[in-house]
Design goal:
Blueprint (H helix, E strand, L loop, with lengths): L3 E9 L10 E2 L4 E6 L2 E6 L5 E5 L4 E9 L5 E8 L2 E8 L6 E6 L9 E6 L5 E6 L5 E6 L4 E7 L7 E6 L6 E6 L2 E8 L2 E4 L10 E6 L4 E6 L3 E6 L2 E7 L8 H10 L16 H7 L13 E4 L2 E5 L4 E7 L6 E8 L17 E6 L5 E6 L4 E5 H6 L5 E2 L1 E2 L9 E6 L5 E6 L3 E6 L4 E7 L4 E6 L5 E6 L3 E6 L4 E7 L7 E3 L5 E6 L2 E6 L5 E6 L5 E6 L5 E6 L3 E6 L4 E7 L5 E6 L6 E5 L3 E6 L2 E7 L5 E6 L5 E6 L3 E6 L9 E4 L5 E6 L5 E6 L4 E8 L21 H371 L5 H15 L2 H92 L4 H44 L15 H16 L1
Helix pairs in contact: 4-5, 4-6, 6-7, 7-8
Family: Belongs to the CFAP57 family.
Subunit structure: May form homodimers. Associates with components of the nexin-dynein regulatory complex (N-DRC) and the CFAP184:CFAP263 complex.
Subcellular location: Cytoplasm, Cytoskeleton, Cilium axoneme
């Protein structure tokens, strides 16, 4: 078995479809089903203990507890077969008492069960089409009677015993109400149904012969001895105080108000199927439970009615109403209390009432509170906390806080604390939640809803969204280990976001099917994903590309995880294997043994692996992965496990399932290796609070303070008024008391006089009594003296007897010492002889035992029948004896009173003798200690003999196994010798191919040299063209400078002209300004010269520019053509080179593989060789064959060494040529394309060559 152990710690969930799913074990402990366990929960101390279901259990169907609270019966399906397991609850831990599994009658499942009042018999009702009611004497697994309850395949919801009669049974179902009586080995119906048949959902026994039954139409019937006595209908009352409840819940301080034998219930789904045609408005009575004052019943969604018995009549009237409270955290608070109540249960003292609902919730109420609430209905409270009511789809945990985050298809998010086992936060939404991830700090969560992906804050009393992404139906999300990134899956694409700027960094695309699982490695540099397309990809987040991939299209993966060092990936899927993947290849495939793995997690220490299955079991394995079936299986959940996580310190395992339950497990290691990782810092206690909430609370505090001050003023005023009233009353009372005191004084004086008279009378009476007593004492002394003389004579006789006994005892001790030593020697010889005889007799005894077992089974049946008769006869005898002994006891009591007086006088003398006897007993104890030590020595010698016999047998077995192995290895050796010869033949043609390849490489290298020379010529041409281009650039710069100067001159002229426009109305001033402009900017001789020069320059510039552009265009075309030619030739050469290198590497791998096989075989043959030399010196030919093998290997090594040296020389020549070509000036990449260096490839080849001979 595996060394890894997981122990169930706490369960958060309820399976409401189990019939009779809640009941009290005692006043504080309740039992309810969760996952595939029954949970014992202490309501005061908040601890849980678990009663595990059967191995390979598929579903838990019904529960029943015995009236004495000692036994628990569980109905299950195990591998499509029904089983009833009976546990003994008084044992610690609870142990299986009986398992009822082999049935002589056809049965699919048992839907309802009940124990008899004396807990000896068990009723079990099977499902249609059989519908058999079985009456068991369960301790002997004996079917006392069986009857088919219904021939029309109608469902039976509940069976029960009468509370006082083992033989009276009640059965209710669809159109069925039957009272049966067990008599003469059969069950016979005692009532007849009258009127229209009803769909009877539940019933309870109110007294020995009275039963209350409820229907799906809200009607209640009281039957007495099978006849109807009373009937009433439950009316639907809509809650008028919903708004009041909402206000009261708003005023409450906390977000969720946690709370500081039932009748069996039918399957909720089964009832809905049969009642699909019924009207929604009719309240259905799913559960009824009786108590001392009357009974309680469910009356429609979220409603329980209490009925009490009327004093004058035998009828019942409705006394109180209890409702499920409105939940403010629900997405629709008005509908949150509309839950069908499936099971009711009163505590043994009838102080509390428990309720389970169709939404997997548990509620409780103290019965004293129902009496306080007058008129208005009372309200239930959560027994523990609100639980999930649908399959849980998401699970997450963090590092800094002991928190668990879950989301479910019930549209809720819940934050649990696994340290205190409580619910921290809870909120419902409009959309279903598919995935959840918790930030390592514990302050944020990412939730994937059906419509959007939301990033939320975990506040002190709320969960608030602060960022939304338009990713619909996100099924997987995960924060990185550092918390700076988070990934979200959208179909077959992974989106990466930062938690700082909340932006989308990259999208990882590559999967063709839906992604089912993602996981980060330890340093957050890589992300591993798997999907339904059978692909497992490892993504490098710095480049956004796949580093490794492993695709197996026949497998649809469910979950993936990675080892702490990030080297090995573990994946599970639909192909019934656990895959160990490394470097894009599957290292190992471990079978799952007919189970589909749905989830997998590896511990942070890397020593443990936990796997969840499709049947709800958990498997704990150690790493490295063990041999097949070396793991621990735990039957945890009642459905496929959806998610699993380990806490950061590897202390706790967390699992969730489709059954809506969350389990926490404590993880242990049997090998003693430390799992616990010591925390340097404790869990954080910080909580997020918004500024607005703080301001609101501060304002509320101020208002409350002002209100308190006002109340103080009012109270002081009222106290003054009360003081005034009380002072007046005190005066009146003092007057009354003074009058009464005077009257009492007079009475006291009268009583004193009477007392004095009585004292005188009593003194006279006492004197008379004392005289009488002295006379009687004298008479008694005389009588006692005579008795003492008689007793003293008896004492002397007893003393003589004790001396004789002591002497005889000393003689016996001496004789025993002598006989003991002789007996020991005789016993050792006798038992050694006996051991030899008994080994021979053992075989005969085994045959006798088989025959005796057959005879025992036959006699057992006869004895059981005889015992029943004898028990009745013995009862009559012992009853007579009891009467006789009671009469004799009365006589003896009278005699003992007389003897006690005599005994008291003798007891003093006996105590003195007892001290002497105790000293003798001390010596006796010492002698007994010596005897015991000798007996222990004998037992030790016997054990040594047995152990030596066992060791001899083990060694003989080992010798036999080694001989077998030796024969097998000789066969392997013959086969491998033949294979080695064949491989040698295959190596020779490959060597010829290598030579041909080398010639091709040389030719390709000569072509490369030609290409390099052409490249140098082209580069010289390019340099010349660049020089021409630089000259034209310089000319262009000069022209641009001239243009800039002209533009500046034009700007200046424009500004001066703009100034002249101001004088447009004054002709003289304007004329002077224009003249000034002319003198400043224009000179006639210059104008003519400039105009001529400008035209010539422009023509020359345009002509040269066109000529240069044509030359450039032709050169560019030439360069492009030549570069394309060079590229095609280079690519062809490189492809040929790569193919040749690949072939060389493959040949080297084959050589390595053959050498490793030969080396392994030689290593395997060495121990056999030694063994043969020790045992059989005749094995001469085998030694010769062993000697031939290493010589063969040496010849091969020499040949391979020569080949490798030749290859090294060729590689060195290639390196020298490359260095020479690199030294040539102008040798670099053509057209921006860089030639890959052959140095790295050649170095890798050289490394491989050097590694081969070393190995």
């Amino acid at each position: 078995m595996s060394a890894v152990v997981a122990q169930s710690l706490h369960a958060f969930g309820l399976r409401s479809h189990v019939a009779n799913n809640i009941f009290f074990f005692d006043e504080q402990i309740i039992i309810f089903p969760s996952g595939n366990y029954c949970v014992k929960y202490n309501m005061d101390q908040k601890w849980q203990k678990f009663i595990p279901g059967s191995d390979k259990s598929q579903a838990m169907l019904a529960l029943s507890i015995s009236p004495n609270r000692r036994y628990l019966a569980i109905s299950e399906l195990v591998q499509e077969k029904p089983i009833i397991t009976i546990y003994e609850l008084s044992a610690i831990p609870c142990r299986k008492r009986k398992v009822l599994s082999n049935f002589d009658f056809p049965v699919q499942r048992f839907t309802s069960m009940a124990f008899s009042p004396d807990s000896k018999y068990l009723l079990a009702q099977s499902s249609p089409p059989e519908s058999n009611l079985v009456y068991w004497l369960w301790e002997k697994q004996k079917v006392m009677a069986m009857i088919k309850t219904d021939a029309q395949n109608n469902t039976v919801y509940q069976v029960s015993f009468s509370p006082q009669d083992n033989t009276q049974v009640c059965v209710t179902g669809n159109g069925m109400f039957k009272l049966l009586r067990f008599a003469e080995g059969t069950l016979k119906q005692t009532n007849f149904q009258r009127g229209e048949p009803q769909n009877y959902l539940a019933h309870t026994w109110v007294s020995d012969d009275k039963i209350v039954v409820g229907t799906d139409t809200g009607r209640l019937f009281l039957f007495e001895s099978g006849d109807q006595r009373w009937e009433t209908s439950i009316m639907v009352k809509e809650s008028t105080s919903v708004l009041k409840n909402l206000e009261m819940m708003h005023e409450s301080e906390s977000l969720i108000e946690f709370p500081t034998l039932s009748s069996p219930v039918p399957s909720f789904e089964q009832i809905l199927e049969t009642n699909g045609h019924s009207q929604q408005s009719m309240p259905q009575v799913f559960a009824i439970a009786s108590y001392s004052k009357g009974f309680a019943c469910s009356a429609g969604p979220g409603r329980v009615l209490l009925f009490e018995k009327m004093e004058e009549k035998d009828f019942y009237h409705e006394s109180r109403e209890i409702r499920i409270p409105v939940d403010l955290q629900s997405n629709d608070p008005s509908q949150s209390d509309k839950q069908d109540i499936l099971c009711l249960c009163f505590s043994p003292s009838e102080e509390t009432l428990l309720v389970s609902t169709s939404k997997n919730q548990l509620y409780s109420i103290t019965m004293s509170l129902t009496e306080i609430s007058k008129g208005e209905p009372a309200h239930f409270e959560y027994l523990m906390y609100p639980l999930h009511s649908a399959p849980i789809t998401g699970l997450a945990t963090c590092i800094r806080k002991p928190l668990i985050a879950t989301c479910s298809l019930d549209r809720s998010i819940r934050i649990w604390n696994y340290e205190s086992n409580t619910l921290e936060l809870y909120k419902e939404y409009q959309e279903e939640a598919y995935t959840i991830s918790l930030h390592p700090s514990g302050h944020f969560i990412v939730v994937g809803f059906a419509d959007k992906l939301r990033l939320m804050n975990l506040l002190i009393d709320d969960i608030r969204s602060f960022k939304e992404y338009s990713i619909r139906g996100c099924k997987e999300s995960a924060f990185s280990n550092g918390g700076h990134l988070f990934a979200a899956v959208n179909g077959n694409v992974i989106h990466l976001f930062t938690t700082t700027s909340l932006e989308n960094i990259t999208n990882l695309k590559g999967h063709t099917g839906k992604i089912r699982s993602i996981v980060w490695n330890a340093d957050d540099s890589k992300l591993i994903s798997c999907g339904t397309d059978g692909a497992v990809y490892e993504w490098n987040l710095s480049t956004g590309r796949r580093e490794t991939e492993c695709v197996l299209k026949s497998c649809s993966y469910n979950c993936v995880t990675v080892s702490p060092d990030g080297k090995i990936i573990f994946a599970v899927g639909s192909d019934h294997t656990l895959k160990e993947i490394a470097d894009s290849s599957v290292l190992r495939e471990i079978p799952t043994f007919d189970v589909v793995y749905t989830a997998i997690v590896v511990s942070h220490s890397g020593r443990m692996i936990f796997v969840g299955t499709s049947v709800g079991t958990i498997r704990a394995m150690k790493y490295p992965l063990p041999l097949p079936k070396e793991f621990n299986d735990y039957q945890a959940h009642g459905g496929p496990i959806t998610k699993m996580f380990l806490t950061f310190d590897d202390q706790f395992l967390l699992t969730v399932s489709e059954d809506g339950c969350l389990f926490t497990w404590k993880v242990f290691d049997k090998d003693g290796r430390g799992i616990k990782r010591e925390r340097e810092v404790g869990f954080a206690e910080e909580v997020l609070v918004t500024k607005t909430d703080m301001e609101e609370k501060a304002q509320v505090m101020l208002e409350l303070k002002t209100r308190v001050e006002e109340l103080k003023m009012e109270n002081e005023y009222q106290l003054r008024l009360k003081d005034m009233n009380y002072s007046e009353k005190i005066k009146e009372l003092t007057d009354k008391f003074i009058q009464e005191m005077e009257s009492l004084k007079t009475k006291n004086q009268v009583l004193r006089t009477e007392k004095e008279k009585q004292d005188v009378f009593h003194r006279e009476r006492m004197d008379d009594l004392l005289d009488r007593q002295t006379r009687e004492l004298q008479d008694l002394e005389c009588c006692n003296n005579q008795k003492l003389l008689l007793e003293y004579e008896k004492y002397q006789e007893l003393q003589l007897k004790s001396q004789r006994m002591q002497e005889e005892y000393e003689k016996q001790l001496r004789d025993n010492d002598e006989t003991k030593s002789q007996a020991l020697e005789e016993l050792t010889e006798f038992y050694e002889a006996k051991l030899q005889e008994k080994t021979g007799l053992l075989e005969e005894a085994q045959e006798d035992v088989r025959q005796q077992l057959r005879e025992f089974e036959e006699t057992k049946k006869q004895i059981e029948e005889d015992e029943d008769r004898e028990i009745q006869d013995i009862k009559t005898k012992y009853e007579k004896k009891l009467r006789d002994e009671k009469e004799s006891n009365l006589r003896l009591k009278g005699e003992t009173g007389i003897m006690r007086k005599k005994f008291s006088s003798l007891q003093k003398e006996i105590e003195e003798r007892a001290n002497d006897i105790e000293s003798l007993k001390g010596e006796q104890m010492k002698l007994q200690g010596v005897i015991k030590s000798l007996e222990k020595d004998i037992l030790g010698l016997k054990r040594e003999i047995q152990e030596r016999d066992e060791t001899i047998q083990d060694k003989e077995k080992r010798i036999y196994d080694l001989k077998k192995k030796n024969q097998e290895l000789e066969k392997f050796k013959f086969v491998l010798d033949y294979k080695i010869k064949e491989l040698k033949k295959q190596i020779e043609p490959r060597e010829n191919e290598i030579k041909v390849m080398k010639e091709q490489i040389q030719e390709m290298e000569s072509e490369l040299e030609r290409f390099f020379k052409q490249n140098t010529q082209l580069e010289l041409n390019i340099t010349e063209l660049w020089q021409k281009l630089r000259a034209t650039d310089q000319e262009m710069r000069r022209e641009r400078q001239k243009e800039r100067d002209l533009e500046a001159l034009v700007k200046r002229f424009k500004t001066d002209l703009h100034n002249c426009v101001a004088y447009i109305q004054e002709a003289r001033a304007l004329k002077e300004k224009v003249r000034g402009l002319f003198e400043k900017y224009v000179q006639r001789a210059d104008m003519v010269e400039i105009a001529g020069l400008n035209t010539d320059l422009q023509l020359e510039y345009s002509r040269q520019r066109e000529h240069l552009e044509r030359n450039l265009a032709t050169l560019k075309k030439k360069v492009v053509k030549e570069s394309e030619l060079h590229r095609t030739d280079y690519v062809r050469i490189m492809q040929e080179n790569v193919s040749l290198i690949k072939e060389i590497n493959e040949l080297r791998r084959e050589l390595k593989f053959t050498r490793s096989q030969v080396y392994d075989l030689e290593a395997a043959l060495k121990p056999t060789k030694k063994f043969q030399q020790q045992e059989a010196p005749e094995a001469g030919p085998s030694e010769a064959t062993h000697r031939i093998a290493p010589t063969m290997r040496l010849n091969e090594q020499e040949e391979m060494g020569r080949i490798i040296e030749m290859q090294r020389r060729e590689i060195q020549s290639l390196r020298d040529q490359i260095q020479e070509q690199e030294q040539v000036p102008g040798f670099h990449a053509i057209g921006g394309v860089r030639l890959p260096s052959l140095g790295s490839r050649i170095q890798s080849i050289v490394k491989l060559d050097t590694e081969v001979p070393n190995k």
